[in-house]
Recover the amino acids of this structure.
């Protein structure tokens, strides 16, 4: 089992920044990637960003490229999502996920086994 705990959500004005963190614990040897997903009001859960440390590759949704960046601590104990130039449409519950997705599933919900509880991000003036 792997446990994931998110932190860092909150209320921010348009154009502002937030940094989300996902702390990982447990049998982390079972995973090789961590992703961030979000679910806005009345919307389906969607992929935001992911890091696959087996290949050192980063993945981003088109809607956040150039504004969000994902990083990890050297010991893989935490993965962070830096969110800049936030827009009202970024408002959502953000969840981190972990697992062993393959290239074709790393941007999909089904690619991940473990999920955090989520943290609310609200972008509003």
């Amino acid at each position: 089992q792997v446990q994931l705990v998110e932190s860092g959500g909150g209320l921010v004005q348009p154009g502002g920044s937030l940094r989300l963190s996902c702390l990982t614990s447990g049998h982390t040897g079972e995973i090789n990637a961590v992703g961030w997903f979000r679910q806005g009001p009345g919307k389906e859960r969607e992929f935001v960003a992911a890091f696959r440390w087996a290949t050192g590759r980063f993945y981003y949704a088109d809607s956040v490229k150039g504004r969000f960046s994902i990083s990890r601590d050297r010991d893989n104990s935490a993965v962070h999502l830096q969110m800049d130039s936030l827009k009202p449409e970024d408002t959502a519950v953000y969840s981190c996920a972990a697992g062993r997705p393959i290239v074709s599933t790393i941007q999909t919900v089904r690619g991940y086994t473990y999920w955090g509880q989520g943290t609310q991000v609200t972008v509003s003036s």
Notes: The radius of gyration is 13 Å. The chain is about 0% helix and 50% strand. The chain has a mean pLDDT of 94. The longest strand covers residues 18-26.
